[in-house]
Known about the structure:
Elements lengths: L1 H6 L6 H17 L3 H16 L15 H14 L3 H14 L5 H17 L3 H18 L2 H12 L8 H17 L7
Amino acid sequence: MLKEAATVADLLPTAARARVGAEQAQAYAVLELRNECEDALRRAQRAAEELDETDLTGLFSDWTTTRIRVYVGTCQLLLGQPKRAIAALTEALDASARDSPNVDLAARVDLASAYALSGELEEGCRILADTYDELAAIGNHRGIERAQRAIERLAPWQDERPVLAMRERVAGINDSWSAPSLPG
């Protein structure tokens, strides 16, 4: 479906082109198709750079260059490039006007994963626990599920002190906010 949408991109509004490109890039990243992913990200970025205020309405209200940077970071994470992911996600969070808290929180979950995968386990666990707390406080179940998947990816380090401390903190958050329990 994304490929079909991309073939008629010239007929789509600018914000839709940005979204299609970003979603397509993420699908390519999951499939580990680096070149296709980067091409789709470039298309998304070009479309986002063409956006003006009239494009940012309704379903497309938050498809800005900042959101595309989040997709760049997520794609780099999926492609096994945690340092690149850290750079893109940090840039996106620094540029964010904090007008899309759900996007910011998703970026922080991915940033936590990127730090952990790059060897900075303590920083990754700190960010993940802080973000999990915020997600639970606002009842963002989709974000909590994303954070739980990030926690699952830490399984290779499950006996490390930062992971144990983070899991304990998350369990306490779950108890106090009645959020879904930790996996496994």
